[in-house]
Amino acid sequence: MFESLTDRFDGIFGRLRGKGRLSEADVDEVLREIRLALLEADVNLDVVRSLLARIRERAVGEDLSRALNPALQVKKIVLEELTETLGGETLRITFAPKPPTVVLMAGLQGSGKTTNTAKLARWFKAQGRNPLLVGADLQRPAAVAQLRTLAEQVGVPVYSAPDEVVASGAGDPVEVAEGAIAEARRLGRDVVIVDTAGRLAIDAELMEQVRRISEEVQPDYTFLVVDAMTGQDAVTVAENFHATLELDGVILTKLDGDARGGAALSVKEVVGRPIAFASTGEKLEDFDLFHPDRLAGRILGEGDLATLIEKAETAFEQEEAEAAAARLLEGTFTFDDFLDQMQALKKMGPLSGLMGMLPGVPKEVRDVEIDDRQIARIEGIIRSMTPGERLDPDVIDNSRRNRIAKGSGTSAHDVGQLITQFKQMRQMMQQMGAAGRKRKKGKGKKAKKGGRVTPKGPARVDKAAFALPTLEEMEAQLPGRGGRPGGVEGLPGQ
């Protein structure tokens, strides 16, 4: 969502790097460019003015002319103030001392309210809670059915009116919400999430119904689900709902879309309520607490290692990953291991999204469209191999290669390329592992006792003995290799 804004900031701070000192005029020039970048991103005008005023006050007041690196100092100030604009700190969810903790979900039709209700239930379940979903959207008969389908995927029960009442449209959502609280206490459910009705636009009937439900269940949290793709309209919707419901936070959906991001940067200062959760994809697991500091870092091109590490910890089993790394360095890494690692990588999300979390990635690399179907093609080739072939690729001859290509819907050339690259990668890693073990063993040797055996004067140190071999050196040792591998172009199917 924030690619264009990130590119603008890259350009702004890139021009600053060449300056040893920054005058007040330089700071004003930077602020003008930041102002244009934010307005182009559809950020609320009042928010832009407030943000720039805070940046200027700090940037001029901290005497950047004496700073060791003025450009980095300005970037640090912008990062901190942008974080504050996005909410400052991550919302901490607390639970009612007497269960259940009640969460009321509100929003317009089409904002993703029902889907994010199920996502929130999954998040609570991951925290060790036992949520109960409440289908109080009786305006659309399909809403309750959709909630039940999603709840089944999450493994959470749903409480609503009887099917015939839902089908007739005559049910009372206030009574359903009231009954759900009693049902949660009976079942021992400690979190109740109420999915309310939405409309295509805000109207008096909608607001009155949501207000009555809120008065009945007395929610601990009231979250408004807004579509980030609607831009400033999302902020207007949040203001209107907040006037009726006293929101506790906003759940921003479709942050993986191609909108300019103005809603995310505006909602906290305009509405006065933080973004509580962010939905970054269509899958139920693409949902988590909103971290203002992490998003600010990504906007300024600083990456998001914290989120990347959390995703990796979720996707990779530590013991299995360590065992696979050991096999890789020993040269016993198999296609089965490779397949397991790719499966875990897919759980972390699209590769293009992961690239944006890495700090220091150049714009040209960050903006490259990575086709995730390439991984599926490689998986298809590996799955078309027999267990013996995955264990020992050397047994794959022309006949087997043709069979694998036919089974995976690829060409024999693609299969051959993958096998060749896999062997080269395995051999290179084995050589690195052997070099590391050799040096480690050498460091552990104890010197023999006795007199001096080296000539006087400074000792000559072989620096090469303390450095890892370069890619060129390792490739030179490979049979039949005279240059560097083809990289991305060498992947099958390209």
Describe this structure in words.
- By secondary structure, this protein is α/β, with parallel strands linked by helices.
- The protein is built from 22 helices and eight strands.
- The protein has three domains: 3-85, Up-down Bundle (Four Helix Bundle (Hemerythrin (Met), subunit A)), CATH 1.20.120.140; 101-302, 3-Layer(aba) Sandwich (Rossmann fold), CATH 3.40.50.300; 303-439, Orthogonal Bundle (434 Repressor (Amino-terminal Domain)).
- The protein has helices at 3-16, 24-40, 45-61, 70-85, 113-126, 141-154, 163-168, 173-187, 204-217, 232-245, 262-271, 292-299, 305-315, 318-330, 335-347, 351-355, 363-366, 373-383, 387-391, 398-408, 412-443, 471-476, and strands at residues 101-107, 131-135, 158-160, 191-195, 221-227, 249-253, 275-279, 287-289.
- The protein has an eight-stranded mixed sheet with strand order 3-2-4-1-5-6-7-8, with helices on both faces.
- The chain is flat.
